[in-house]
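Per reviewer request, we include the raw input and output of the structure prediction for the construct analysed in the revised manuscript.
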Amino acid sequence: MNQIYSAMDVSKQAFHQHLARKAVVNQNSLNLLAPVYKIRDKHPGMSVRHIYKKIKPEGIGRDRFESFCFKHGLKLKPKRNYRRTTNSNGGIRFDNLLESWELTGINQVFVSDLTFYQIREKTYYLTFIMDLYSRRIVGYTASKRMHTEITTLPSLRMALRLRGVNKLKGTIMHSDGGGQYYSTAFLKETGMMLNSMAKTVYENIHAERLNGTIKNQYLRYYKPRDFEELTQNLKKAVEMYNTERPHSSLNYLSPVEFESLSTEMQLIIKRKKETEKVNISNNNISLAVT
């Protein structure tokens, strides 16, 4: 061994100290697996990067943390499905009120969409309403058909109960052009809210992303076997999304955590994210010019 130490130009003491430090690092890394697996059990589709932001481990950087998790089989395999559920031909079309809207608080803009969920040969439908400012899901439902009375209407009523009807005067209800959003029953229930519609999926992109998050990061892993289990799993997924899932647009807070902050602190976080977006955009422009 002494010959090996000499060849490596290192003392025996230094060599063993190096091994000891490496063993501590390896043990600390392995200790991370328990909380990571616990989060993945509750949030089966949460990315490793979001997990890192949620647990904020000491002594390990983001990139090394991601590499460590990937080595232990925690890398997600994305799954996409582009099946359409909306037929926007004909019917009422409201203007897109979000084109010139600046958000400064909750209850200003709700975005909503209806999507499908397939269990073997049966197709079910999920409806979500989300507060665009805080990203909180304020209304949702699972249904066996696409009728207004069992899709958008119960989701809206849930949102009205949660937020309070009196606080939603002038709130924008933004959606796609689906008939469930301009039916007489739905429009009557919105009351003093302002109806807004997207002309393309890109004008309702936040609601579209929410659909994918709930389906691909939660329900896909929960594997509901029938409508009853779908309903139960949907409730669990929404609770996890609202109370625990970190959001990059909220400085990696959950929607409920973000809403618990003072209005001043919320705006600081929002302005910081907007500044980062502007800087990224400017950098891309300068790179393109050079």
